[in-house]
Specification:
Blueprint lengths: L2 H14 L5 E2 L24 E2 L15 E2 L5 E6 L10 H17 L9 E3 L5 E3 L4 H7 L3 E2 L2 E2 L7 E6 L10 H18 L6 E3 L11 H5 L1 H12 L16 H12 L12 H13 L10 H7 L10 H12 L12 H13 L10 H8 L1
Parallel strand pairs: 2-6, 4-9, 4-10, 5-9
Antiparallel strand pairs: 1-8, 3-7, 5-6
Bound molecules: zinc ion.
């Protein structure tokens, strides 16, 4: 993001105390252990200080509890100072400051559902968020990400992470909180995003944003599931991966030009595809969308999905013609690419091969 944007984000936050943003909400409860998939292990709830514990003021209006689980987690930074006070007292003080600043903006309560201090203390943000998360079936509507407050849990991380990363203890608390929320709500570990993925903001900072792929991996490991983490592909990006996604969208009947530039037409085609696939139509190609977008292609197949695979092979230096016809030459290139990546060399472009091609 450019400097002016960053500065605007900082100013917005400082108006509130340092943060901008809005925070979100979540609520849930964990399913009984017996209902968990066998390949997962129960994630222990992190120690989360409730609004009562940090002496929050009462909300200005009743909190809205939606009768649906959130489907994603959105990571924020508060854009406030990178303090060196790692005490619990600082975490509570921060929580009170954010609540007051959000009241000052006319909001009914803290915007986000949870906050993590630089010292790694986790506190409840908006009232009832903890109760909702413990239940696992309901979501507290927050105010942290325009357009996505009904479907996302917002986590504010104290600090400004444009040029530095969060302290180890704070990151570790973030992994623990996300893993627990994923477990409670059945949110896939792949569905962790940064505020900038959906709104025009520098939040959660360049450095913290760049750590999100690792965060997804760390959360998946904590939850005990094996997942493919795909690159978040979205508006403003250009290149081979965008062109490949566009070809795959065309293969699903969307009408757009595969020009390698992710503009409004691509975002709209992505949203339309997501709606048709039963996904949240956000116009951003995250892991859940990639998994639905790819199509297994093999020798004898033809069309834009084949072209997408050929385009990615060609971009990696394989001598294939990007003609949309999966013949012997394409099959040979696929086998060779698979061998180079330690994948089964079967010449078929299935999910793991697609993942390697797009990553
Ligand atoms: Zn934010």
């Amino acid at each position: 993001m450019n400097d002016s944007l960053t500065r605007r984000d900082l100013l917005r936050w400082s108006a509130l105390l340092g943060g901008s943003a809005l925070l979100a909400s979540c609520g849930l409860q964990a399913p009984p252990i017996a209902d968990l998939p066998l390949n997962t292990h129960a994630v222990t709830a992190p120690n989360i200080s409730s609004t009562t514990t940090w002496k929050a003021q009462p909300p200005k209006e009743p909190i809205t509890l939606l009768d649906a689980r959130p489907t994603r987690i959105i990571v924020h930074h508060t854009a406030s100072a990178n303090v060196t006070d790692y005490s619990q007292a600082q975490a509570f003080s921060l929580a009170r400051s954010i609540q007051q600043s959000h009241f000052d903006r006319g909001w009914i309560d803290s915007g986000q559902q949870f906050t993590i201090s630089r010292g790694g203390y986790v506190v409840e943000g908006r009232h009832r968020s903890l109760e909702a998360a413990q239940g696992g079936t309901r979501h507290v509507r927050g105010a942290h990400c325009d357009g996505f407050n009904d479907v996302s849990v917002g986590i504010e991380n104290e600090g400004t992470y444009m040029t530095v990363s969060p302290p180890a203890g704070q990151y570790s608390a973030l992994v623990s909180l996300c893993a627990w929320l994923c477990q409670q709500y059945g949110i896939p570990a792949t569905e962790l995003y940064g505020h900038r993925d959906f709104n025009n903001t520098a939040c959660p900072g360049d450095l913290l944003y760049s750590q999100l792929p690792q965060l997804r991996k760390d959360v998946a490991a904590r939850v005990g599931v094996s997942v493919r983490i795909w690159p978040t592909t979205r508006s403003g990006q250009t290149g081979d991966r965008v062109r490949s996604a566009q070809r795959l969208l065309i293969s699903h009947g969307q009408s757009l030009t595969a020009d390698g530039s992710y503009g409004p037409a691509t975002a709209s085609a992505v949203s339309a595809f997501q709606s048709s696939a039963g996904l949240t139509p956000d116009g951003v190609i995250g892991s859940a969308t990639w998994e639905r977008l790819i199509r297994t292609v093999r020798r004898g197949d033809s069309g834009p999905a084949v072209q997408a695979a050929q385009g990615q092979l060609a971009a990696r230096g394989y001598a294939v013609t990007v003609d949309g016809l999966f013949g012997a030459g394409t099959e040979s290139a696929v086998r060779s690419f698979q061998s180079s990546r330690g994948l089964t060399s079967d010449g078929i472009v299935g999910p793991n091969t697609w993942h390697a091609l797009e990553s």
